[in-house]
């Protein structure tokens, strides 16, 4: 994708910074705007529960995967528009501006801003006193497990399909994003079932 801004070319690896910026901005908006608005709309009742905030994070993650698929589909459309020479050349760069990637990264960062702080709050609030200090460790363990599972998923997709060849201009990467969106949506459904059955032990204390 075209990463040029005037004469400056944005390094590919730095695109992920937009996700971190989205986390910081979202945390500020949640604290300074969304929570006061929630209290105003609910007549001063307590803030959304940790489970509700985690649920919002799940929804934003699904939207992030769908947005990634849509952007990749648009990129591949520009490849096809330039013919077989572009498709068969791994070094060919799509003229589609890389700024399109900001949306999926921003949605992912906003999802993390809802999800991970609420997870730490839930664990610290609900764990027995002897385990409260492990709350942040549990979140880190879940993130690490997610990295391992994502690597395993990509490896399985490479073995079972032709979606991820060495030449990404001839790939079907958008299919992988749609697969991830479906898996995250299924996980969200399972989460909703568990959250509905869960009974808080210490909420509001």
Automatic annotation (TrEMBL):
Keywords for the protein's UniProt record, in alphabetical order: Membrane, Transmembrane, Transmembrane helix
One GO CC annotation: membrane
InterPro entries found in the cross-reference section: MFS_trans_sf, POT_fam
GO molecular function, one term: transmembrane transporter activity
Membrane topology: Multi-pass membrane protein
Transmembrane segments annotated in the record for this chain: 12-30, 50-71, 92-114, 134-154, 175-193
Compartments it resides in: Membrane
Pfam families: PTR2
Family listed: Belongs to the major facilitator superfamily. Proton-dependent oligopeptide transporter (POT/PTR) (TC 2.A.17) family.
Protein name: Os05g0338900 protein
């Amino acid at each position: 994708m075209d990463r040029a801004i005037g004469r400056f070319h944005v390094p590919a690896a730095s695109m992920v910074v937009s996700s971190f910026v989205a986390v910081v901005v979202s945390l500020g908006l949640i604290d300074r705007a969304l929570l006061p608005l929630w209290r105003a709309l609910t007549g001063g009742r307590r803030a959304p529960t940790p489970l509700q905030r985690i649920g919002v994070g799940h929804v934003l993650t699904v939207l992030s995967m769908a947005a990634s698929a849509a952007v990749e589909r648009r990129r591949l459309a520009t490849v096809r528009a330039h013919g077989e020479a572009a498709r068969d050349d791994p070094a060919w760069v799509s003229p589609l501006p890389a700024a399109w990637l900001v949306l999926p990264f921003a949605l992912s960062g906003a999802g993390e801003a809802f999800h991970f702080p609420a997870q730490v709050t839930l664990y610290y609030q609900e764990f027995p006193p002897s385990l409260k200090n492990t709350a942040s460790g549990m979140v880190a363990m879940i993130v690490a497990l997610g990295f391992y599972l994502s690597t395993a998923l990509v490896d399985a997709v490479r073995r079972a399909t032709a979606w991820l060849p060495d030449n990404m201009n001839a790939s079907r990467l958008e299919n992988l994003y749609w697969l991830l969106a479906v898996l995250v949506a299924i996980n969200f459904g399972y989460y909703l079932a568990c959250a509905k059955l869960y009974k808080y032990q210490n909420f509001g204390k």
